[in-house]
Amino acid sequence: MNSVYDGYALWTGGDWFAGANTEAGFCGSYPEIAGESSLARLYIVKGGPGTGKSTLMRRVGEAAGAAGHTAQRYLCGSDPDSLDAVILDGRIAVVDGTAPHVWEMTYPGAASELVDLSAFWDNALLASAREEIVARASVKAAEFASAYRWLGAAGKILHEEEVLARRTFLTEKAAGFASRLVKRLGKPAGHGSARRRYTHGVTMRGRCRTEGIADGAEVRYAIEDAGATARLFLPVLADALTRAGWDVTLGMLPLSGIIGGVRAGHFAFVCGGEGDAVVRMSRFTVSDPAVRGELRLAAKVRESCLAAAEASMRRASAEHFALEEIYRGAMDFPAKERYERGLIERILDAAESG
């Protein structure tokens, strides 16, 4: 039986996804990671595809790291080869503010700044390519819309899988185990809060995941799924951790609010893979052949829906990368890079000032 956690390839280069393609369309995390009221400074980058937004953010992260600052990198939810945000020391944010994750300044000048890369492209060249740009953008939008419909179908199947899993899940037994496990972890380092970050994405390059939850963890627990019950156990575990006073990070899948992992201090609980200890969900399930059969059928249908969504996104990617080439050909990159060097200096000055 294919678990909901299977099929996601590890993608390096970022800690989390800044947003995700879901059954409800694109959902972003900017309100949580780039709200101006919680930052010392916010830089919002605007520009077309292929104009160097991601390259700028990578260079900011590299320069910050070389200067001794922490740089948390957020991958693009549609193209994990690109960055959508870099957060320095939790205080300075540089984000891609173009569609589908449009982000605007709340306190212009006072707390935020616009980085407008359109200043470095040739409007006349782009105007001459208008017909192709419009045509390709229209096809891309249509393919994304198709992908969202297929993801919506997959989400409905996932809901049915959860209903089935609850028929075999021993909730009280699982909760008791979670409480005992949390007590063994020792004194909590936090106030009992929880934050959500996307660790998985359905992208133009397929299904991808990051190691954001497990990265740097001293102790890793591998959660071994059984009968789709891991998705029921992880919220129980997260609740036990927060009630005990731990600050937790929930690693989210892009469908149906499914948790793929939980981080509490230096402890990581992740579905699949290897760990220092294994928690087998078979301990908290009862055998029901009828449920097993329905779950196998549901998993096949869900996988078919996800495959169709990925096919739509692959077709969208062809249009997206063609648009990148058009815009790239209209850019004055030497001028952009001269501006970029000065901008990075100002960003690092802002990081040092705090």
- Following the backbone from N to C, one meets helices and strands in this order, namely EEEEHEHEEEEHHHEEEEHEEEEHH
The poorly predicted ranges are: none
Mean pLDDT rating: 96
> Approximately how much beta-strand content do the residues carry?
15-25%
Approximate shape: flat
Structure class: alpha/beta
Total of helices: 8
The N- to C-terminal Cα distance equals: 52 Å
Query: Over the alpha carbons, how many angstroms does the gyration radius reach?
Result: 22 Å
Number of strands: 17
Instruction: Tell me roughly what share of residues is in helical segments.
Output: 40-55%
Q: Describe the main β-sheet briefly.
A: 6 strands, mixed
Adjacency order of strands in the biggest sheet: 2-6-7-8-5-9
- For the record, the count of structural domains works out to 2
Essential attributes:
354 residues, alpha/beta, 6-stranded mixed beta sheet, 8 helices, 17 strands, 22% strand, flat
